[in-house]
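Input C-alpha cells:
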C-alpha cells in the first residue's frame, strides 16, 4: 500500500525554501524510485512476488542465469507483472513532473529507477530509465548466425511463444529490464551522471536511496555543488546528503513544489 504522509503545507518554511531553489535553478535533476509509483498502486518488486510465485526468491526470477535455466517460468512471471500494470495510471507526482517539463523545456532531467513506464505515460520527455522498461523486450543473445553473413538474420522476427523466439536463428526475447548482476545501460547511466554534474538542484523522490549506482547520483550532484532535496515520507539513506528533507509523498509534495515554481 502507498505510504501515508501528513497533508502538505505549501506555506511552510521548508516548502518556501525548496520552491525558491526550484525557481533559481537553471537545471534540475530528479531521481525517482518505487515510492512514486506505489501511489498509483504499483507493487514494489518484492510485493509483486506473491501467489503462484511465493515459493521462489525474487532473485531467482530476475537473473540471466534463471532465464537460461527456465525461460518459460521467468517469461510467465514478467508476463503476469505486465498484465497487472498495463492499466495503471500516473498519479499527481508523475503529472507534476511532466507538466513542469512542458512549461520549462530543457530545465528538468528525469532519472528513474522504475520500470513501469508511468513517467512516460504521464507525458515526461527524455526519461532516463536506469533499470529499463518492463514493457519492452530485447534479444537475449547476439544473432548466432552473425558470423556467417550470408545466413545471418537481416531482421529478427519473433514467433509467439513463452518466450518468443526468432524464426530464423532461435534467439529468444527477454524482458527489457536490468536483472540482478547486470550493468546498467551505459548510455543511460552516463546521461544521468551528466545531469547530476550539471544540475543546480537535485530532487530525490520516493526512493530509500539504498541501491547503487542510482543513489550515487545524489552524492555526485552534491559534490559538484548542487543542492539536494529529499521528498519521502520516511527517513532515507540519502538524508545526510540532502540540505532539506520534505516528509511527504511525491503525489502530495511535487504538485506543491513545482506547480508555481518558475512561473
Amino acid at each position: 500500500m502507498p505510504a501515508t504522509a501528513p497533508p502538505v503545507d505549501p506555506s511552510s518554511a521548508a516548502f518556501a525554501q525548496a520552491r525558491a531553489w526550484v525557481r533559481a535553478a537553471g537545471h534540475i535533476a530528479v531521481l525517482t524510485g518505487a515510492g512514486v509509483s506505489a501511489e498509483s498502486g504499483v507493487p514494489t518488486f518484492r510485493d509483486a512476488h506473491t501467489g503462484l510465485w511465493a515459493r521462489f526468491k525474487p532473485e531467482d526470477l530476475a537473473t540471466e542465469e534463471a532465464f537460461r535455466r527456465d525461460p518459460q517460468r521467468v517469461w510467465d512471471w514478467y508476463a503476469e507483472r505486465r498484465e497487472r500494470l498495463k492499466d495503471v495510471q500516473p498519479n499527481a507526482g508523475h503529472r507534476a513532473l511532466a507538466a513542469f517539463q512542458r512549461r520549462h523545456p530543457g530545465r528538468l532531467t528525469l532519472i528513474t529507477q522504475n520500470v513501469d513506464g508511468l513517467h512516460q505515460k504521464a507525458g515526461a520527455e527524455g526519461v532516463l530509465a536506469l533499470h529499463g522498461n518492463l514493457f519492452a523486450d530485447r534479444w537475449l543473445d547476439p544473432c548466432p548466425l552473425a558470423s556467417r553473413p550470408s545466413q545471418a538474420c537481416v531482421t529478427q522476427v519473433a514467433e509467439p511463444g513463452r518466450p518468443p523466439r526468432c524464426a530464423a536463428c532461435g534467439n529468444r526475447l527477454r524482458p527489457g529490464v536490468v536483472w540482478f548482476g547486470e550493468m546498467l545501460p551505459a548510455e543511460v547511466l552516463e546521461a544521468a551522471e551528466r545531469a547530476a554534474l550539471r544540475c543546480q538542484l537535485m530532487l530525490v523522490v520516493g526512493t530509500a536511496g539504498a541501491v547503487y549506482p542510482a543513489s550515487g547520483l545524489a552524492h555526485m550532484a552534491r559534490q559538484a555543488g548542487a543542492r539536494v532535496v529529499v521528498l519521502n515520507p520516511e527517513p532515507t539513506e540519502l538524508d545526510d546528503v540532502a540540505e532539506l528533507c520534505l516528509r511527504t509523498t511525491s503525489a502530495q509534495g511535487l504538485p506543491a513544489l513545482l506547480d508555481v515554481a518558475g512561473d
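DSSP finds nine helices and ten strands in the chain. The radius of gyration is 20 Å.
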